[in-house]
């Protein structure tokens, strides 16, 4: 038995991080390849949905959604890499596998692997690599499941918040000008940060400082 684990939403300033795990018999990994499984970033939203449905139907899958406020709380006592390693280990322990393939979150693959191993509940082999979602089909499958669930969560958040502000939320990533503009306009109109935001992110602190400086002048 093998298991692939990946995340979606590590870096956004709005919305959750989603961890996904997919289990398969090693000889069945070829079925993932035949279905067109690849790194989720290389697939269109429609194709991701289609392949995600196949994965869920054909293999055992689990997801964990870590909400923005929980990320803020956990980051008071651990780094984002430690948080992710802990979450990977917890989802991995739901179902036993002989080998776990993990997309490394840290620049130090070995250190990240050992951080995951520290929280595992049983003995196993852990293969932790950068770009694992582009190398191992089982990790690509997990990346697709995580991305589809994260997109669903963000769509729900957008429907809720856009009704109140009347402008698009964007992707939720700090590099997205629509997202930054949305946060600024929300704060100007309502006087506080929008829900579902990661208050511990430097992006948020920069926006708060910019708006404060604007009021001073």
Précis, in short:
The chain has 217 residues and is of the alpha/beta class. 50% of the residues lie in helices and 15% in strands.
Q: What does this 3D model show about the protein?
A:
Helix 2 crosses helix 6 (137-165). A 5-stranded mixed sheet has the order 3-2-1-4-5, with helices on both faces. It is globular. Helix content is 50%, strand content 15%. It folds into 2 domains: 2-155, Nucleotidyltransferase, domain 5 (2-Layer Sandwich); 157-211, Ribonuclease hii. Domain 2 (Arc Repressor Mutant, subunit A, Orthogonal Bundle), CATH 1.10.10.460. The chain has 217 residues and is of the alpha/beta class. Strand 4, helix 5 (109-118) and strand 5 form a beta-alpha-beta unit. The N and C termini lie far apart (62 Å). The longest helix has 29 residues, at 137-165.
Tally of structural domains: 2
Strand content: 5-15%
Taking pLDDT < 50 over at least 5 consecutive residues as the criterion, the unreliable ranges are: none
Shape: globular
Q: Kindly report the spatial arrangement of strands forming the biggest sheet.
A: 3-2-1-4-5
Q: What fold name goes in the CATH topology slot of the largest domain?
A: Nucleotidyltransferase, domain 5
Please state the CA-atom Rg, rounded to the nearest Å: 19 Å
Classify the secondary structure makeup into a structural class: alpha/beta
CATH architecture of the largest domain: 2-Layer Sandwich
Helix content: 40-55%
CATH class of the largest domain: Alpha Beta
CATH superfamily placement of the largest domain: Ribonuclease H-like superfamily/Ribonuclease H
Taking the alpha carbons of the first and last residues, their distance comes to 62 Å
Overall pLDDT, averaged?
Answer: 93
How many strands, which pairing sense, and closed or not: the largest β-sheet?
A: 5 strands, mixed
Total strands: 5
Number of helices: 8
């Amino acid at each position: 038995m093998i298991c692939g684990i990946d995340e979606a939403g590590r870096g956004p300033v709005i919305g959750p991080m989603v961890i996904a795990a997919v289990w398969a018999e090693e000889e069945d990994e070829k079925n993932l390849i035949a279905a067109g499984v690849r790194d989720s970033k290389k697939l269109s939203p429609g194709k991701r949905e289609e392949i995600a449905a196949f994965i869920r139907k054909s293999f055992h899958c689990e997801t964990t959604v870590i909400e923005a406020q929980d990320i803020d709380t956990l980051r008071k006592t651990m780094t984002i890499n430690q948080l992710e390693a802990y979450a990977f280990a917890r989802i991995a322990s739901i179902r036993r596998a002989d080998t776990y393939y993990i997309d490394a979150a840290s620049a130090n693959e070995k250190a990240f692997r050992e951080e995951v191993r520290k929280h595992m509940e049983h003995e196993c082999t852990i293969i932790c690599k950068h770009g694992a979602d582009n190398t191992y089909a089982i990790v690509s499958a997990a990346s697709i499941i995580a991305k589809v669930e994260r997109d669903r969560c963000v769509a729900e958040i957008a429907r809720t918040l856009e009704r109140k502000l009347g402008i698009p939320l964007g992707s939720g990533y700090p590099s997205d000008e629509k997202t930054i503009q949305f946060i600024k306009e929300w704060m100007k109109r309502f006087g506080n940060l929008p829900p579902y935001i990661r208050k511990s992110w430097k992006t948020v602190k920069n926006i708060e400082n910019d708006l404060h400086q604007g009021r001073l002048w």
